[in-house]
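Lab notebook page, bench 4
Experiment: in silico fold of construct C2
Operator: M.H.
Input chain length: 371 residues
Purpose: comparison with the prior construct
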Amino acid sequence: MSMIRDLRAVVRPSRVSLRKDSGPYDTTRDPATTSAVVDCAVYRDGRRLATDTPLNPQEAMRLVRRDGGFVWIGLHEPTEGEFAGIAREFGLHPLAVEDAVQAHQRPKLERYDDSLFTVFKTIHYLDHDRLTSTSEVVETGEVMCFTGRDFFITVRHGGQGSLRGLRHRLQDDPELLAKGPSAVLHAIADHVVDGYIAVADAVQDDIDEVETEVFSPGRKGTPRGTDAGRIYQLKREVLEFKRAVSPLLRPMQLLSERPMRLIDPDIQKYFRDVADHLARVQEQVVGFDELLNSILQANLAQASVAQNEDMRKITSWAAIIAVPTMVCGVYGMNFDHMPELHWRYGYPVIMGITVTICIGIHRTLKRNGWL
């Protein structure tokens, strides 16, 4: 059981938040590699079987059937033709094979005879200097896993979510890897959910930034608001995040609660930990969505208040200008009998009265907060 106690340390050696200074992922296979197979290895008693030349899936499976152990095959975006031979060799169900090749699947867990088919959505936080109305915040990929009694097959889609580092960490702990394919499935599930936690922390920073801009005071102490397009774009990215997290809750609950003959009982209890972390991330994402709704409504309300403020100022100045306009209109009608026209002090008196009335209106409007 000491090996199991070290499970978390093996599959989760460090949780590094995907901040804006994080480096790029090691995401794709070697450009010189023409095959979709990224890696193919046989594991016996938790140790990788050393071979003089790289194994192909058929050779690996023959070794497993002859001497025991299990084979772990990793593929990246295989075509239907590339995957057909592997599907026949391992007896994979045609529906699962179709999903694995076409991608764009919801996270799910399906049982087919002697294998489990699991789909994970991977999430990668995209660096950006400043959030704009066109910024992409998260990028999604997919990892499909076929778990059998003596084989484990991963099919990756997308430019991120490499499992190379995870494979190496598992190989450094033979006792854990000796538990078979279910240990690899748990490690991948934990790896994916840890990625969700890191992305959630980074998205939280973006939301905090937008929230600060919306509610921070601008000129004259009033909230300055922000571009509604930025908030809406961030809301769309959070929705993409939610589509990856929420459907995975049920598969993780099944893996942690329902006995399955392909899942080692010692490993199954650790799926509860993954399910718990996933539930917390799901709560965070739902909270993000609700908070962005509130921020968007507050921003629109501030825009409406700013427009009302502008209209009040325009109306106030129009009221002030109406006084001299009226006076000029009266004395511009060219009547013959207008006493003030021939009075020596008529002009300065009329101008003084006009200015006095304008000043009075200005002070009244300013005192009432219209100017």
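Observations: The longest helix spans residues 265-330. The beta strands are 37-44, 47-48, 70-76, 108-112, 115-125, 138-148, 151-157.
Next step: discuss at group meeting.
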